[in-house]
Amino acid sequence: MDEFNPYAPPKTLEQDEQRLFELETEAWRDGKLLMVRKDAALPDRCIRCNEPADGFRFKRFLTWAHPAFLILLFFCGPLPFVLLYFLVSKRGRVTVGLCLVHRRQRKQAILRGWLVALTGFIAFGFMAVLPHNYIGIALIGGIVLILTGFFVGAFGSRVLVPAKIDRNFIWLSKVSPVYLATFPDVQQP
What we know:
alpha+beta, 2 domains, four-stranded antiparallel beta sheet, 6 helices, 22% strand, flat
């Protein structure tokens, strides 16, 4: 009965989701993505390298909106975009393990971001003692350093990167292939 029937009606998304809910697993492999249930607690292994996490649990609330939503930023401006983003975006929570090496890398990225941003604030402080013709350079340099520090800290410390979130599931990218291989394939019955 497992033969392909070209006359069979197509499976619906609800049937696929119901099949996944009946299984006892929390996560599946979906190509290069890790598909997890919302509020899932994944095994005590590092999501980046599959090494033992030694009990360290990394819990994060994730937010995602379709990338095409960024087009609205150009049409409506930053403030309405942020308000619409929080109305339209999907949210979910995931708990994963993180090994000592990747915890340390995350902390170092946050520290680097703060140090670069602090250098930008110091540049603002030097504006009071600099000659008049150098104030503009210090102002622009300070703003650039603060924004660079923000991006270095924010993107360097990312552990969980949502590729998609729907009503029941979260798809995570940038997961170790070795870690990903330990989960069953979502396409297999």
